[in-house]
User: What shape does this take?
Amino acid sequence: MNITRRHLMAGSAGLAGAALAGQQAEAQSRLNVGVVLIGPVGDFGWSHMHDQGRRRMAEVLGDRVNATTVESVAPPDFDRVVTQLVRTGHRLIFTTSFSYFAPTQRLAPQHPGVFFENATGPTTLPNMAIYNARFYEGRYIQGVIAARKSRSKTIGYVATFPVPEVISAINTVMRGAWSVDPSMKVRVVWVNAWSNPAREADAARALIDQGCDVLCSHTDGPAPLQLAEQRGIFGFGQASDMTRFAPRAHLTSSVNNWGDYYADRAKAVLDGTWRATDTWGGLGSGMFRMAPFTNMTPEEVSEATRIRDAIAAGTLHPFEGPITRQDGTVVIPAGRRLTDDEIRAQNYFYQGIDVAMP
Assistant: This one.
């Protein structure tokens, strides 16, 4: 198995080196797969887990695939990176961020012989699939746990960008918290980055100073959780099991699992069965799981486990009505639930969330 990784920063020479050129000769005998990451492999979160998925694909398919990972690709560099991957014979390209959805949708029709897979997004194209996990299910569990642990009745949320997948996650934390205590509040600070440890720490610090004593984070690294540890409060990890970064503060994490999906999709290209699918797997699918519940009483662990199992079984749905916006407008009444399209299009906050839409 030949695995090539290139670390690309803005202004670098990119992927034009001889190592990638040599892969063109192998294109007929194996599948060249590109993995484009929004952050560094060493973020210990989102990008790290996509790289773990690439590793799992390599284990499953062996010499049938050759993978190239490109790290820390800022959106302005995206077209250049993807175009170079196409030119060097990569027939399957995973673009692993919501920030890449629009440019992937634009580039895919220009390269009909290449299969694209974008992590998150609302629509597919003939040669572009989308995939994601239902992370909101884990956020609901976090909201339940946070409501049990918080003395100030105020949860802090370190948020990235005001896009639907982040908005729905914040809303679901609120739903979980209110299922325990309707007096709970959620405060939000935007960092306007997927991975920026300094900004993440500043946001976490601001939330703690505002009285939040449990932190959720949508960013890609452990900085908010580490600050929670320093300040003696609780927090949740993101994308990977972050217990080791904050052993006294960590409550649980949503742990991503992309490896089986990556292997299946690469195999579909090799077998000629690839189709432009829309995959959105929940706790019951194995696309993500909850890390062990830590720093919790036996009663709290029992409740969190019960909620987790009910969501996985489909007997509890985090977007069951009634749902009410901040301004009191009813979105849906009791007895209904949001559809997948409605969840993906959320552009409003629930009652109890203390932030204005940017």
User: Anything to note?
Assistant: The mean pLDDT is 92. The two ends are 46 Å apart (CA to CA). The first strand starts at residue 3 and ends at 7.
